[in-house]
């Protein structure tokens, strides 16, 4: 998330913040968040749902009115992590009750098989008829190449990587 935050700031010129723990959220950050001074906010489910410092933010009318879209990246992690590893992923559906009904939810995954997709839709609280856009996995910039390496100097042959 820090990388995305840096990219938004430096490349796109979009004000953003990426707090990754309660210690990273300062009073000045809360004031800027409440005032709508950031256009992009990158947070983990744990920060969103469990941060004591952010709890009051969700009840502020200005914050709720400024919030337009919630993007959940790597949505397939919900199905795999919500039970044992990172339980906050299983509570993402609580976000719906924390925001205005006009806030759009966008979920993104590069690989999401149909059974995982069905489970994810239910656990995040999307309606069963939610629009799904599958762009496929065929990418021009990704390829698989196999080469027969000479028996001598196999380590040097790895330089192509």
UniProtKB/TrEMBL annotation:
Residues of the Helicase ATP-binding domain: 1-130
Record keywords: ATP-binding, Helicase, Hydrolase, Membrane, Nucleotide-binding, Transmembrane, Transmembrane helix
Example GO BP: double-strand break repair via homologous recombination
KW Transmembrane helix (keyword) present: yes
InterPro entries, sorted: DEAD/DEAH_box_helicase_dom, Helicase_ATP-bd, P-loop_NTPase
Pfam families named in the record: DEAD
Sequence intervals crossing the membrane: 94-113
Superkingdom of origin organism: Eukaryota
Similarity annotation: Belongs to the helicase family. RecQ subfamily.
UniProt name for this protein: ATP-dependent DNA helicase sgs1
Gene source species: Dissophora globulifera
């Amino acid at each position: 998330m820090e990388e995305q935050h840096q990219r938004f700031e430096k490349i796109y010129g979009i004000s953003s913040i990426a707090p990754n723990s309660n210690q990273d959220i300062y009073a000045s950050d809360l004031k800027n968040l409440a005032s709508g001074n950031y256009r992009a906010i990158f947070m983990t489910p744990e920060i969103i749902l469990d941060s004591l410092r952010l709890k009051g933010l969700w009840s502020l009318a200005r914050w709720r009115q400024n919030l337009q879209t919630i993007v959940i990246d790597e949505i397939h992690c919900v199905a795999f992590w919500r039970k044992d590893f990172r339980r906050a992923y299983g509570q993402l559906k609580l976000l719906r009750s924390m925001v205005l009904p006009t806030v759009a939810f966008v979920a993104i995954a590069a690989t999401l098989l149909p059974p995982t997709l069905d489970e994810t839709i239910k656990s995040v609280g999307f309606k069963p008829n939610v629009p799904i856009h599958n762009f496929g996995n065929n990418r021009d910039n990704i390829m698989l190449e196999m080469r027969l390496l000479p028996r001598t100097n196999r380590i040097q042959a790895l330089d192509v990587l």
